[in-house]
Protein backbone atom coordinates (compact mmCIF):
# COMPACT_ATOMS: atom_id res chain seq x y z
CA UNK A 1 0.00 0.00 0.00
CA UNK A 2 1.31 3.46 -0.84
CA UNK A 3 -0.01 6.74 0.41
CA UNK A 4 1.92 8.94 -1.97
CA UNK A 5 3.74 12.17 -1.23
CA UNK A 6 1.82 14.20 1.32
CA UNK A 7 3.32 17.60 2.01
CA UNK A 8 3.45 18.53 5.68
CA UNK A 9 0.95 21.12 6.79
CA UNK A 10 2.27 24.51 7.78
CA UNK A 11 -0.66 25.39 9.97
CA UNK A 12 -0.55 25.04 13.75
CA UNK A 13 -1.80 21.80 15.18
CA UNK A 14 -5.17 21.56 16.84
CA UNK A 15 -5.06 21.81 20.63
CA UNK A 16 -8.54 20.58 21.26
CA UNK A 17 -7.65 16.96 21.92
CA UNK A 18 -9.15 14.01 20.13
CA UNK A 19 -12.10 15.10 18.00
CA UNK A 20 -13.91 12.53 15.87
CA UNK A 21 -16.29 14.81 14.05
CA UNK A 22 -15.21 16.72 10.97
CA UNK A 23 -18.10 19.18 10.77
CA UNK A 24 -18.55 22.57 12.47
CA UNK A 25 -14.86 22.70 13.36
CA UNK A 26 -15.03 25.45 16.02
CA UNK A 27 -16.85 23.21 18.47
CA UNK A 28 -15.48 24.72 21.66
CA UNK A 29 -14.87 28.32 22.61
CA UNK A 30 -11.43 29.29 23.85
CA UNK A 31 -12.20 28.89 27.53
CA UNK A 32 -13.22 25.27 26.91
CA UNK A 33 -10.00 24.64 24.99
CA UNK A 34 -8.00 25.82 27.98
CA UNK A 35 -9.89 23.42 30.24
CA UNK A 36 -8.80 20.51 28.05
CA UNK A 37 -5.16 21.41 28.66
CA UNK A 38 -2.07 21.80 26.49
CA UNK A 39 -1.95 19.45 23.52
CA UNK A 40 1.27 19.26 21.52
CA UNK A 41 0.17 16.69 18.97
CA UNK A 42 -0.70 13.00 18.95
CA UNK A 43 1.94 10.29 18.77
CA UNK A 44 2.20 7.77 15.96
CA UNK A 45 1.01 4.97 18.23
CA UNK A 46 -1.93 7.00 19.49
CA UNK A 47 -2.97 7.86 15.95
CA UNK A 48 -2.84 4.20 14.90
CA UNK A 49 -4.94 3.31 17.94
CA UNK A 50 -7.56 5.94 17.14
CA UNK A 51 -7.86 5.04 13.46
CA UNK A 52 -7.97 1.31 14.22
CA UNK A 53 -10.70 1.89 16.79
CA UNK A 54 -12.68 3.76 14.14
CA UNK A 55 -12.35 0.84 11.71
CA UNK A 56 -12.95 -2.19 13.93
CA UNK A 57 -16.50 -2.29 15.18
CA UNK A 58 -19.60 -4.40 14.66
CA UNK A 59 -18.60 -5.25 11.07
CA UNK A 60 -16.26 -7.90 12.39
CA UNK A 61 -19.23 -9.96 13.62
CA UNK A 62 -20.66 -10.33 10.09
CA UNK A 63 -17.37 -11.27 8.41
CA UNK A 64 -17.55 -15.01 9.21
CA UNK A 65 -20.94 -15.01 7.45
CA UNK A 66 -19.25 -13.53 4.37
CA UNK A 67 -16.96 -16.57 4.38
CA UNK A 68 -20.08 -18.74 4.23
CA UNK A 69 -21.23 -16.78 1.17
CA UNK A 70 -17.90 -16.40 -0.62
CA UNK A 71 -15.91 -19.38 0.60
CA UNK A 72 -12.69 -19.12 2.59
CA UNK A 73 -10.33 -18.45 -0.32
CA UNK A 74 -12.37 -15.79 -2.10
CA UNK A 75 -13.45 -14.27 1.21
CA UNK A 76 -9.88 -13.72 2.44
CA UNK A 77 -8.90 -12.31 -0.95
CA UNK A 78 -11.80 -9.84 -0.81
CA UNK A 79 -10.88 -8.67 2.70
CA UNK A 80 -7.32 -7.92 1.56
CA UNK A 81 -8.46 -6.34 -1.73
CA UNK A 82 -10.90 -4.07 0.12
CA UNK A 83 -8.07 -2.94 2.43
CA UNK A 84 -5.95 -1.88 -0.55
CA UNK A 85 -8.90 -0.10 -2.16
CA UNK A 86 -9.65 1.71 1.12
CA UNK A 87 -6.04 2.84 1.38
CA UNK A 88 -6.18 4.24 -2.14
CA UNK A 89 -9.35 6.23 -1.44
CA UNK A 90 -7.87 7.66 1.78
CA UNK A 91 -4.71 8.69 -0.09
CA UNK A 92 -6.82 10.62 -2.59
CA UNK A 93 -8.72 12.41 0.18
CA UNK A 94 -5.53 13.47 1.93
CA UNK A 95 -3.77 14.57 -1.27
CA UNK A 96 -6.65 16.79 -2.36
CA UNK A 97 -7.00 18.13 1.18
CA UNK A 98 -3.36 19.25 1.05
CA UNK A 99 -3.92 20.91 -2.31
CA UNK A 100 -7.07 22.72 -1.16
CA UNK A 101 -5.77 23.46 2.37
CA UNK A 102 -8.86 21.83 3.87
CA UNK A 103 -8.73 19.99 7.19
CA UNK A 104 -11.91 17.92 7.20
CA UNK A 105 -13.85 15.62 4.90
CA UNK A 106 -16.79 18.01 4.93
CA UNK A 107 -14.61 21.00 4.05
CA UNK A 108 -13.04 18.98 1.22
CA UNK A 109 -16.48 18.12 -0.17
CA UNK A 110 -17.42 21.78 0.16
CA UNK A 111 -14.27 22.80 -1.70
CA UNK A 112 -15.04 20.35 -4.52
CA UNK A 113 -18.83 20.67 -4.80
CA UNK A 114 -19.91 23.61 -2.70
CA UNK A 115 -22.67 23.57 -0.08
CA UNK A 116 -24.39 20.60 -1.76
CA UNK A 117 -21.27 18.48 -1.38
CA UNK A 118 -20.94 19.33 2.30
CA UNK A 119 -24.60 18.48 2.94
CA UNK A 120 -24.27 15.17 1.09
CA UNK A 121 -21.31 14.29 3.31
CA UNK A 122 -23.28 15.13 6.47
CA UNK A 123 -26.24 13.01 5.35
CA UNK A 124 -23.96 10.09 4.51
CA UNK A 125 -22.27 10.22 7.92
CA UNK A 126 -25.73 10.37 9.51
CA UNK A 127 -27.04 7.30 7.63
CA UNK A 128 -23.83 5.32 8.11
CA UNK A 129 -23.47 5.98 11.83
CA UNK A 130 -27.16 5.41 12.62
CA UNK A 131 -26.93 2.09 10.76
CA UNK A 132 -23.77 1.10 12.64
CA UNK A 133 -25.28 1.99 16.02
CA UNK A 134 -28.41 0.00 15.23
CA UNK A 135 -26.14 -2.96 14.45
CA UNK A 136 -24.45 -2.50 17.83
CA UNK A 137 -27.80 -2.71 19.59
CA UNK A 138 -28.90 -5.73 17.55
CA UNK A 139 -25.73 -7.62 18.49
CA UNK A 140 -26.10 -6.72 22.16
CA UNK A 141 -29.72 -7.90 22.02
CA UNK A 142 -28.62 -11.16 20.35
CA UNK A 143 -26.00 -11.76 23.03
CA UNK A 144 -28.10 -10.94 26.08
CA UNK A 145 -31.57 -12.09 24.99
CA UNK A 146 -30.93 -14.49 22.12
CA UNK A 147 -32.00 -14.63 18.49
CA UNK A 148 -33.80 -16.96 16.08
CA UNK A 149 -32.48 -18.05 12.69
CA UNK A 150 -34.12 -20.50 10.27
CA UNK A 151 -36.60 -21.50 12.95
CA UNK A 152 -33.83 -22.27 15.48
CA UNK A 153 -33.71 -20.27 18.71
CA UNK A 154 -30.26 -19.36 20.04
CA UNK A 155 -30.48 -18.56 23.72
CA UNK A 156 -28.96 -15.37 25.09
CA UNK A 157 -26.78 -15.11 28.16
CA UNK A 158 -29.57 -14.02 30.51
CA UNK A 159 -31.88 -16.79 29.36
CA UNK A 160 -29.08 -19.33 29.77
CA UNK A 161 -28.27 -18.13 33.26
CA UNK A 162 -31.75 -17.49 34.66
CA UNK A 163 -34.22 -19.11 32.27
CA UNK A 164 -36.84 -17.36 30.15
CA UNK A 165 -38.54 -14.44 31.92
CA UNK A 166 -40.25 -11.25 30.81
CA UNK A 167 -37.39 -9.14 32.15
CA UNK A 168 -34.78 -10.79 29.94
CA UNK A 169 -36.81 -10.35 26.76
CA UNK A 170 -35.08 -8.47 23.94
CA UNK A 171 -37.01 -5.19 24.07
CA UNK A 172 -36.80 -4.81 27.85
CA UNK A 173 -33.08 -5.69 27.97
CA UNK A 174 -32.25 -3.18 25.24
CA UNK A 175 -34.33 -0.54 27.01
CA UNK A 176 -32.41 -1.05 30.27
CA UNK A 177 -29.07 -1.08 28.43
CA UNK A 178 -29.98 2.15 26.62
CA UNK A 179 -31.03 3.96 29.80
CA UNK A 180 -28.25 2.62 32.05
CA UNK A 181 -25.23 2.60 29.69
CA UNK A 182 -25.74 4.27 26.30
CA UNK A 183 -27.54 7.39 27.52
CA UNK A 184 -25.06 8.34 30.30
CA UNK A 185 -22.04 7.78 28.03
CA UNK A 186 -23.68 9.75 25.21
CA UNK A 187 -24.12 12.76 27.49
CA UNK A 188 -20.41 13.63 27.59
CA UNK A 189 -19.78 16.83 25.67
CA UNK A 190 -16.12 16.12 24.96
CA UNK A 191 -14.91 12.94 23.32
CA UNK A 192 -11.74 13.12 25.44
CA UNK A 193 -13.93 12.09 28.37
CA UNK A 194 -14.38 8.70 26.67
CA UNK A 195 -10.67 7.90 26.24
CA UNK A 196 -10.59 5.38 29.10
CA UNK A 197 -13.68 3.49 27.92
CA UNK A 198 -12.29 3.49 24.37
CA UNK A 199 -9.04 1.87 25.53
CA UNK A 200 -10.95 -0.70 27.57
CA UNK A 201 -13.12 -1.56 24.56
CA UNK A 202 -10.06 -2.42 22.45
CA UNK A 203 -8.83 -4.76 25.17
CA UNK A 204 -12.21 -6.51 25.26
CA UNK A 205 -12.15 -6.97 21.46
CA UNK A 206 -8.74 -8.65 21.73
CA UNK A 207 -10.09 -10.95 24.45
CA UNK A 208 -12.85 -12.02 22.06
CA UNK A 209 -10.38 -12.74 19.24
CA UNK A 210 -7.89 -14.64 21.42
CA UNK A 211 -10.56 -16.89 22.91
CA UNK A 212 -12.12 -17.59 19.49
CA UNK A 213 -8.74 -18.53 17.99
CA UNK A 214 -7.92 -20.69 21.01
CA UNK A 215 -11.21 -22.59 20.83
CA UNK A 216 -10.78 -23.26 17.10
CA UNK A 217 -7.20 -24.48 17.50
CA UNK A 218 -8.27 -26.88 20.26
CA UNK A 219 -11.00 -28.28 18.02
CA UNK A 220 -8.61 -28.55 15.08
CA UNK A 221 -6.17 -30.55 17.19
CA UNK A 222 -8.94 -32.89 18.33
CA UNK A 223 -10.11 -33.34 14.71
CA UNK A 224 -13.57 -31.88 15.29
CA UNK A 225 -13.41 -29.22 12.58
CA UNK A 226 -14.55 -30.02 9.05
CA UNK A 227 -12.68 -28.75 5.98
CA UNK A 228 -14.35 -25.48 4.95
CA UNK A 229 -15.28 -24.46 1.42
CA UNK A 230 -12.56 -22.44 -0.30
CA UNK A 231 -14.83 -21.18 -3.10
CA UNK A 232 -18.49 -20.12 -3.24
CA UNK A 233 -21.21 -22.63 -3.96
CA UNK A 234 -22.73 -21.34 -7.21
CA UNK A 235 -25.52 -23.47 -8.67
CA UNK A 236 -27.76 -20.97 -10.46
CA UNK A 237 -28.18 -17.25 -11.21
CA UNK A 238 -29.72 -16.57 -7.81
CA UNK A 239 -26.74 -18.04 -5.96
CA UNK A 240 -24.39 -16.09 -8.23
CA UNK A 241 -26.13 -12.81 -7.47
CA UNK A 242 -26.13 -13.57 -3.74
CA UNK A 243 -22.32 -13.34 -3.76
CA UNK A 244 -22.64 -9.58 -4.16
CA UNK A 245 -24.50 -9.29 -0.85
CA UNK A 246 -21.11 -9.66 0.85
CA UNK A 247 -19.82 -6.43 -0.74
CA UNK A 248 -21.77 -3.94 1.46
CA UNK A 249 -20.60 -5.82 4.56
CA UNK A 250 -16.95 -5.60 3.48
CA UNK A 251 -17.33 -1.92 2.58
CA UNK A 252 -18.87 -1.08 5.95
CA UNK A 253 -16.10 -2.96 7.79
CA UNK A 254 -13.45 -0.52 6.54
CA UNK A 255 -15.25 2.82 6.75
CA UNK A 256 -13.09 5.26 8.71
CA UNK A 257 -12.81 8.12 6.22
CA UNK A 258 -14.77 10.67 8.26
CA UNK A 259 -12.18 10.38 11.04
CA UNK A 260 -8.94 10.40 9.00
CA UNK A 261 -8.64 14.19 8.76
CA UNK A 262 -9.07 14.67 12.49
CA UNK A 263 -6.33 12.13 13.23
CA UNK A 264 -4.09 13.76 10.62
CA UNK A 265 -4.70 17.22 12.11
CA UNK A 266 -3.74 16.02 15.58
CA UNK A 267 -0.50 14.27 14.60
CA UNK A 268 2.67 15.75 16.08
CA UNK A 269 4.33 15.11 12.70
CA UNK A 270 1.76 15.15 9.90
CA UNK A 271 4.13 13.40 7.47
CA UNK A 272 3.50 10.25 9.53
CA UNK A 273 -0.07 9.92 8.30
CA UNK A 274 0.90 7.49 5.53
CA UNK A 275 2.47 5.20 8.12
CA UNK A 276 -0.57 5.56 10.39
CA UNK A 277 -2.94 4.51 7.61
CA UNK A 278 -0.72 1.59 6.56
CA UNK A 279 -0.32 0.31 10.11
CA UNK A 280 -4.00 0.68 10.94
CA UNK A 281 -5.23 -1.08 7.81
CA UNK A 282 -2.63 -3.84 8.23
CA UNK A 283 -3.69 -4.36 11.85
CA UNK A 284 -7.40 -4.32 11.12
CA UNK A 285 -7.05 -6.56 8.06
CA UNK A 286 -5.16 -9.10 10.18
CA UNK A 287 -7.89 -9.03 12.83
CA UNK A 288 -10.57 -9.37 10.15
CA UNK A 289 -8.87 -12.31 8.45
CA UNK A 290 -8.29 -14.13 11.76
CA UNK A 291 -11.86 -13.59 12.92
CA UNK A 292 -13.32 -14.63 9.56
CA UNK A 293 -11.18 -17.74 9.17
CA UNK A 294 -11.46 -19.06 12.71
CA UNK A 295 -15.13 -18.12 13.05
CA UNK A 296 -16.01 -19.96 9.83
CA UNK A 297 -13.78 -22.92 10.74
CA UNK A 298 -15.51 -23.18 14.09
CA UNK A 299 -19.12 -23.12 12.87
CA UNK A 300 -18.93 -23.91 9.15
CA UNK A 301 -22.23 -23.78 7.29
CA UNK A 302 -24.03 -23.11 10.58
CA UNK A 303 -22.38 -19.67 10.87
CA UNK A 304 -25.03 -17.03 11.58
CA UNK A 305 -25.18 -13.44 10.31
CA UNK A 306 -24.03 -12.41 13.78
CA UNK A 307 -21.38 -14.98 14.72
CA UNK A 308 -21.70 -14.09 18.41
CA UNK A 309 -25.11 -15.77 18.38
CA UNK A 310 -23.35 -19.06 17.51
CA UNK A 311 -21.67 -19.13 20.89
CA UNK A 312 -24.60 -20.78 22.62
CA UNK A 313 -23.81 -24.31 21.42
CA UNK A 314 -21.81 -27.13 22.97
CA UNK A 315 -18.25 -26.56 21.78
CA UNK A 316 -17.16 -30.06 22.74
CA UNK A 317 -14.13 -28.88 24.74
CA UNK A 318 -13.39 -28.49 28.46
CA UNK A 319 -14.98 -25.36 29.99
CA UNK A 320 -16.83 -24.81 26.72
CA UNK A 321 -19.80 -23.14 28.41
CA UNK A 322 -17.54 -20.73 30.31
CA UNK A 323 -15.62 -19.84 27.13
CA UNK A 324 -18.89 -19.27 25.27
CA UNK A 325 -19.99 -16.79 27.90
CA UNK A 326 -16.58 -15.08 27.98
CA UNK A 327 -16.63 -14.55 24.20
CA UNK A 328 -20.10 -13.07 24.18
CA UNK A 329 -19.66 -10.91 27.27
CA UNK A 330 -16.33 -9.48 26.07
CA UNK A 331 -17.59 -8.35 22.69
CA UNK A 332 -20.98 -7.17 23.90
CA UNK A 333 -19.18 -5.03 26.48
CA UNK A 334 -16.80 -3.81 23.75
CA UNK A 335 -19.74 -2.58 21.66
CA UNK A 336 -21.36 -0.89 24.63
CA UNK A 337 -18.20 1.14 25.17
CA UNK A 338 -17.65 1.95 21.49
CA UNK A 339 -21.27 3.12 21.06
CA UNK A 340 -20.64 6.68 22.35
CA UNK A 341 -17.54 7.06 20.13
CA UNK A 342 -19.68 6.54 17.02
CA UNK A 343 -22.60 8.49 18.49
CA UNK A 344 -20.47 11.61 19.09
CA UNK A 345 -19.83 12.50 15.41
CA UNK A 346 -23.36 11.46 14.50
CA UNK A 347 -24.90 14.02 16.85
CA UNK A 348 -22.61 16.84 15.72
CA UNK A 349 -23.10 16.14 12.01
CA UNK A 350 -26.87 16.13 12.35
CA UNK A 351 -26.70 19.32 14.41
CA UNK A 352 -24.58 20.90 11.68
CA UNK A 353 -27.08 19.77 9.08
CA UNK A 354 -30.17 21.04 10.91
CA UNK A 355 -28.72 24.11 12.66
CA UNK A 356 -25.77 25.32 10.55
CA UNK A 357 -25.86 28.85 11.96
CA UNK A 358 -26.58 28.05 15.60
CA UNK A 359 -24.09 28.45 18.41
CA UNK A 360 -21.90 25.39 19.25
CA UNK A 361 -23.96 22.44 20.45
CA UNK A 362 -21.98 22.09 23.68
CA UNK A 363 -23.14 25.56 24.75
CA UNK A 364 -26.86 24.86 24.24
CA UNK A 365 -27.96 22.35 26.86
CA UNK A 366 -31.55 22.13 25.65
CA UNK A 367 -30.55 21.44 22.03
CA UNK A 368 -27.88 19.00 23.20
CA UNK A 369 -30.35 17.05 25.34
CA UNK A 370 -33.06 17.05 22.67
CA UNK A 371 -30.66 15.89 19.94
CA UNK A 372 -29.28 13.13 22.16
CA UNK A 373 -32.74 11.90 23.21
CA UNK A 374 -34.20 11.86 19.70
CA UNK A 375 -31.21 10.03 18.17
CA UNK A 376 -30.99 7.38 20.88
CA UNK A 377 -34.74 6.78 20.59
CA UNK A 378 -34.45 6.35 16.81
CA UNK A 379 -31.59 3.87 17.21
CA UNK A 380 -33.47 1.93 19.89
CA UNK A 381 -36.57 1.62 17.69
CA UNK A 382 -34.46 0.60 14.69
CA UNK A 383 -32.71 -2.14 16.65
CA UNK A 384 -36.08 -3.59 17.67
CA UNK A 385 -37.54 -3.47 14.14
CA UNK A 386 -34.62 -4.70 12.00
CA UNK A 387 -34.33 -8.51 12.22
CA UNK A 388 -30.57 -9.04 11.72
CA UNK A 389 -27.27 -7.24 11.36
CA UNK A 390 -26.96 -8.55 7.79
CA UNK A 391 -30.03 -6.51 6.79
CA UNK A 392 -28.63 -3.39 8.48
CA UNK A 393 -25.22 -3.82 6.85
CA UNK A 394 -26.84 -4.32 3.46
CA UNK A 395 -28.62 -0.96 3.74
CA UNK A 396 -25.80 1.18 5.16
CA UNK A 397 -23.10 -0.55 3.13
CA UNK A 398 -24.98 -0.18 -0.16
CA UNK A 399 -25.79 3.51 0.43
CA UNK A 400 -23.89 5.79 2.81
CA UNK A 401 -20.81 3.64 3.43
CA UNK A 402 -20.02 3.15 -0.24
CA UNK A 403 -20.39 6.91 -0.79
CA UNK A 404 -18.06 7.79 2.10
CA UNK A 405 -15.50 5.16 1.20
CA UNK A 406 -15.35 5.23 -2.59
CA UNK A 407 -17.82 7.37 -4.55
CA UNK A 408 -17.06 10.71 -2.86
CA UNK A 409 -13.22 10.32 -3.01
CA UNK A 410 -13.49 9.22 -6.65
CA UNK A 411 -15.79 12.12 -7.55
CA UNK A 412 -13.41 14.62 -5.93
CA UNK A 413 -10.52 13.18 -7.94
CA UNK A 414 -12.38 13.10 -11.24
CA UNK A 415 -13.47 16.72 -10.70
CA UNK A 416 -9.76 17.52 -10.15
CA UNK A 417 -10.35 21.09 -8.99
CA UNK A 418 -6.62 21.63 -8.35
CA UNK A 419 -5.29 19.80 -11.45
CA UNK A 420 -3.21 17.28 -9.50
CA UNK A 421 -4.85 13.98 -10.51
CA UNK A 422 -2.86 11.67 -12.76
CA UNK A 423 -4.26 9.50 -15.52
CA UNK A 424 -3.77 6.49 -13.25
CA UNK A 425 -5.75 8.23 -10.48
CA UNK A 426 -8.68 8.87 -12.79
CA UNK A 427 -8.66 5.30 -14.13
CA UNK A 428 -8.66 3.99 -10.56
CA UNK A 429 -11.55 6.30 -9.65
CA UNK A 430 -13.64 5.18 -12.63
CA UNK A 431 -12.99 1.59 -11.53
CA UNK A 432 -14.03 2.38 -7.94
CA UNK A 433 -17.27 4.05 -8.99
CA UNK A 434 -18.20 1.29 -11.46
CA UNK A 435 -17.37 -1.43 -8.91
CA UNK A 436 -19.20 0.34 -6.08
CA UNK A 437 -22.36 1.18 -8.03
CA UNK A 438 -22.69 -2.11 -9.94
CA UNK A 439 -21.92 -4.45 -7.04
CA UNK A 440 -24.24 -2.63 -4.65
CA UNK A 441 -27.11 -2.46 -7.16
CA UNK A 442 -26.78 -6.20 -7.69
CA UNK A 443 -26.64 -6.72 -3.91
CA UNK A 444 -29.83 -4.69 -3.42
CA UNK A 445 -31.56 -6.60 -6.23
CA UNK A 446 -30.45 -9.95 -4.79
CA UNK A 447 -31.72 -9.02 -1.32
CA UNK A 448 -35.04 -7.80 -2.70
CA UNK A 449 -35.45 -10.95 -4.81
CA UNK A 450 -34.66 -13.21 -1.85
CA UNK A 451 -37.12 -11.30 0.35
CA UNK A 452 -39.86 -11.51 -2.28
CA UNK A 453 -39.23 -15.22 -2.79
CA UNK A 454 -39.30 -15.87 0.95
CA UNK A 455 -42.55 -13.94 1.47
CA UNK A 456 -44.29 -15.45 -1.55
CA UNK A 457 -43.42 -19.06 -0.77
CA UNK A 458 -46.36 -21.06 0.66
CA UNK A 459 -46.25 -21.64 4.40
CA UNK A 460 -46.90 -25.03 5.81
UniProtKB/TrEMBL annotation:
It is found in: Membrane. GO terms for molecular function: L-amino acid transmembrane transporter activity. One of its GO terms (cellular component) is organelle membrane. It is a multi-pass membrane protein. Its main location: membrane. Residues 42-445 form the Amino acid transporter transmembrane domain. Keywords: Amino-acid transport, Membrane, Transmembrane, Transmembrane helix, Transport. Residues 1-25 are annotated as: Disordered. The keyword Transmembrane applies. The chain crosses the membrane at residues 39-63, 69-94, 119-140, 167-188, 200-221, 241-260, 281-300, 329-348, 368-389, 395-415, 427-452. This is Putative sodium-coupled neutral amino acid transporter 6.
Amino acid sequence: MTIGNLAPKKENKSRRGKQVVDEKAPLLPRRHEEEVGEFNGASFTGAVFNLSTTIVGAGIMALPATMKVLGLGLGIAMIIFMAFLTESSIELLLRFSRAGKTHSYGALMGDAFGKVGRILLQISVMVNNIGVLIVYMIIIGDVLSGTSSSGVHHAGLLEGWFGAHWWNGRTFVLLVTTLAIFSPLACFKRIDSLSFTSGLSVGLALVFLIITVGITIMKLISGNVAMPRLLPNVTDLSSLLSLFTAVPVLVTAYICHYNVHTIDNELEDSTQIKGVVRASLALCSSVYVLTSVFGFLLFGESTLDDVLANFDTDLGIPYGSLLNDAVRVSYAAHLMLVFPIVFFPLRLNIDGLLFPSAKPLVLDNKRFALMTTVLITMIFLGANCIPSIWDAFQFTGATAAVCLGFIFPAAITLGDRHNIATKRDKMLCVFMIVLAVSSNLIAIYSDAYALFKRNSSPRE
